[in-house]
Design goal:
Length: 425
């Protein structure tokens, strides 16, 4: 067909092709730079698959090197039933063997009934603290009236929780002030709990001790897409801060994995930096993040000068109010930027449900410690080859999670063997 075209058209096609081809190659290489799929074998397997003897592990963790850890829940007095539900679930599946203390936080004074009931559910192991007004309000750099007006508008625009002032305060609190709260000062590790969630596999080892032993700083269960209208300018501010601090990005880092490469060729791509959605190179964040209502993490990571510096920078930009930046997005971008890939752990062996989202592993075949007195003889769901759970009771056929795109992106990726590629980067 090409042959049958008259010569002028043929020349035109050749000219066009020689212009387009270099751009196409450039886009392809740029895109490949951010494409770091998980390799075939799991680089971040569960710490243990199946059941361990909790009594033996708990006794070992009762020794002197027991981690300084706390279970933390932010709740309102009206959350009493949901809070009790969560604590009963954690006690039943984990803490009755390990006896970690609880801290409950509230922005209002505690109702004595809440304290009585939750202290009882936590077997007398709980402390009830209040968040100071300064940690639960607008920062001095933000004009309150303007912020309230913006919150009102976000509500009218139907932004998820955007119209609730207290929700904005909560996101700001969990993004920064949480870590410096006086009640958490004695601790190095925390497990964040949310009212009304379920844990439905037995957790027969000490996740804090394993995190410490293996040099982890952040643990998660579910990853999702953030709703873009809650945080249009967040990524730009975080990436600007990253540039200003000269924080390097390695080709196999989580930060690289979080970026959605632009399909525009250089130099047109760079023009996109004028848009607040893009970073200075014209790329965007994929919106994939760890769902922070479950976290097991190192408080010192978030108390570090670097993280707190990032929080203060973001706080001064006012986006916790002018937009509805969530703490999940802030934590995730910070972890992607400041933690090494191997310092982040996916608790794929935990069954966790919050609302309609859940992670539900299958039970490990032949690893259920039949006859264990500690574990009892309750029923549990089917064992499967390749399963990692311990006596999980959740129904894995009803899983509504995102095992696909975001988990694949954020679960310890590493650049496959493509040495030729690094040559271009
Ligand atoms: C660990 O210590 C706590 C309190 O010190 C105790 O109640 C618990 O029974 C101990 N657990 C084991 C398995 O020894
Ligand atoms: C919780 O219960 C324990 C034991 O019953 C008790 O010693 C403790 O004072 C209670 N804590 C609070 C905050 O009520």
């Amino acid at each position: 067909m090409f042959q049958s075209l008259p010569p002028p058209s043929r020349r035109l096609i050749l000219i066009c092709a020689s212009i387009i081809l270099p751009f196409a190659i450039e886009v392809f290489l740029h895109w490949r730079r951010f494409d770091i799929p998980r390799p075939g074998h799991d680089l971040d397997p569960p710490f243990y698959a199946g059941c361990q003897d909790p009594a033996a592990l708990a006794a070992a963790s009762n020794e002197t090197d027991r981690p300084n850890a706390v279970l933390v829940m932010l709740a309102r007095n009206s959350d009493i039933d949901d809070a009790r539900h969560t604590v009963a679930s954690v006690e039943d599946k984990f803490n009755r063997w390990f006896n970690y203390p609880y801290v409950f936080l509230n922005d209002q004074p505690w109702d004595p009934e809440f304290v009585r009931v939750l202290n009882q559910t936590a077997r007398g192991n709980a402390r009830f603290d209040v968040i100071s007004h300064d940690d639960w309000t607008y920062p001095p750099s933000v004009d309150k009236e303007e912020a309230r007006q913006s919150i009102l508008e976000q509500g009218q625009r139907g932004i998820h929780y955007g119209g609730l002032e207290s929700y904005h305060h909560m996101c700001r609190f969990f993004s920064g002030k949480f870590y410096t709260h006086e009640a958490l000062q004695p601790f190095k590790w925390y497990w964040r709990l949310e009212p009304g969630v379920d844990f439905s596999c037995s957790i027969t080892y000490d996740p804090f001790a394993e995190m410490a032993r293996r040099g982890k700083v952040y643990g998660w269960t579910i990853s999702l897409w953030e709703e873009p209208n809650t945080c249009p300018t967040l990524f730009r501010h975080v990436s600007d801060w990253k540039e200003s601090q000269m924080i390097p990005t390695t080709p196999d880092s989580l930060w690289t994995a979080m970026i959605q490469a632009s399909w525009l060729p250089y130099p047109f791509r760079r023009w996109m930096r004028w848009s607040p959605l893009h970073d200075q190179y014209g790329d965007v964040w994929s919106l994939c993040h760890y769902w922070s209502n479950f976290e097991i993490a190192d408080l010192d990571f978030f108390r570090s000068r670097q993280y707190q510096g990032l929080f203060e920078y973001l706080d001064a930009k006012g986006g916790f109010y002018k937009e509805r930046w969530g703490d999940a997005a802030v934590h995730s971008l910070a972890v992607g930027m400041l933690a090494r890939t191997d310092q982040v752990h996916h608790f794929s062996d935990f069954a966790y449900r919050h609302g309609s989202f859940q992670q539900c592993p299958a039970n490990a075949l032949g690893e259920q410690l039949e006859g264990s007195i500690a574990l009892g003889d309750g029923l549990y769901s089917q064992e499967k080859d390749g399963g990692v759970g311990c006596r999980c009771t959740c129904d894995s056929s009803k899983t509504i999670n995102f095992p696909g795109y975001c988990t694949n992106k954020l679960k310890q990726p590493t650049r496959p063997d493509r040495p030729w590629l690094t040559w271009f980067l």
